[in-house]
Amino acid sequence: MSDQVAIKTWGNSQGIRIPKNILEKLGLHVSDTLQIEVIDDSIVLKKAFKHKTFEERVAEYNGEISICDYDWGEPVGKEIL
């Protein structure tokens, strides 16, 4: 998908408008935060990491608890085993 947008004055800054079809495809909404980077000669916009609220986490909980063992490596001091 390739669209062209124009840089326009917005107050004392400049901005672009992102087409609705791109916003919908990425699940972006007004007031969402984006991360912006310059890579070589490109401007890259990415969804910013968003912490979930407690309510959002509870809504996603399916009643299962996953337990995994973590390998901390060999003891190196006076750990109690």
From TrEMBL:
Molecular function via GO: DNA binding; toxin sequestering activity
Pfam family, one: MazE_antitoxin
SUPFAM superfamilies: AbrB/MazE/MraZ-like
Positions of the SpoVT-AbrB domain: 8-51
Protein name as it appears in the record: SpoVT/AbrB-like protein
Signal peptide: none
Native organism: Roseburia inulinivorans DSM 16841
